[in-house]
Amino acid sequence: MISFLGQEKGPASHIYRSIVDTQSVISKGLKWVIGDGKSVDIWKDWWCGETPLALLFPGNYTNSNAKVVELIEHGRWNLDMLFPLVDQGVIDSISRIKLPLTLNVPDHPTWAGSPSGNFSVAAAYNLINKDEAGVKSLEAELYGSYRGLTIILEKSLANVTIESDSLVVVELINEGNPGNHNRSIIITEAHGLLNSTGTKLSHTYCNANQCADHLAHLGAEQNDELTIAVTTPISLREFLIKDSLLLRQALD
């Protein structure tokens, strides 16, 4: 990998100047996935939230070379050193980042401008135009599938099939080979849970997934973080029928 980030611009060819002119875009899209935390600067690198912490809290830190590994203790987050320096929103954001279950997993950079985690001209164009809705939607689908798998494990459920209308998420979890995806840890662990619980993850068409939308609306109306329906809600039955009809139409 050739690194030109942070290099000073001197006499150079048109090509080199063009490359350097893109470094702000590259820097904006480059985000770190935390493994052991040894390679990532807490303040200068982008690894949590939407921007490096140094830009959010300039001058709030005394050790500009502190690494993320200093926030990890026995495989868990220990954010005591950050409490007086950042707001609660940042603390919550970091706490939601899953750390690898195994030790000595290296940190790795990923391109946050695309769902695959790989850089492309199209992804850079989308990032410049702040077209990130697809990425956020994919992350929501990915986390939803992962959370469902953890519930299946906790409840010792059997013969469960999870359906998602995101073909990308279904393929990522089923294959378990995330590459440089910025949610590689969740993908790998979801793949492991899929196998250990014997759960099936399959793709369904978006227009035949009204049951999931209805359940999401019901969940949003609840005060609890997680609500598990032991029996089928009566209001869901009409959507089950609609989904069956729409699925048949989609397959015909």
* Range of strand content: 5-15%
Largest sheet: 2 strands, antiparallel
For the biggest β-sheet, the strand order reads 1-4
Shape, per Cα inertia axes: elongated
Q: Are there runs of 5+ residues with pLDDT below 50, and where?
A: 1-22
Number of helices: 10
- C-alpha termini separation: 48 Å
Radius of gyration: 21 Å
- Give the helix level as a range of percent: 40-55%
- Summing up helix and strand content along with how strands pair, one would put the structural category as mainly alpha
Mean pLDDT: 76
Order of helices and strands: HHEHEEHEHHEHHEHH
What is the total tally of β strands? 6
Please describe what this structure looks like.
This protein starts with 13 loop residues before the first helix and ends with a helix. Helix 6 (133-154) packs parallel to helix 8 (184-197) and helix 7 crosses helix 8. The chain is mainly alpha-helical and 252 residues long. It has ten helices and six strands, in the order H-H-E-H-E-E-H-E-H-H-E-H-H-E-H-H. Strand 2 (72-73) and strand 3 (76-77) form a beta hairpin. 42% of the residues lie in helices and 8% in strands. The strands form three sheets. It has a two-stranded antiparallel sheet. A two-stranded antiparallel ribbon has the order 2-3. It has a two-stranded parallel sheet with strand order 5-6. The chain has helices at residues 14-21, 23-29, 53-56, 88-95, 121-128, 133-154, 167-175, 184-197, 210-220, 237-251; strands at residues 30-33, 72-73, 76-77, 108-111, 161-164, 200-203. It is elongated.
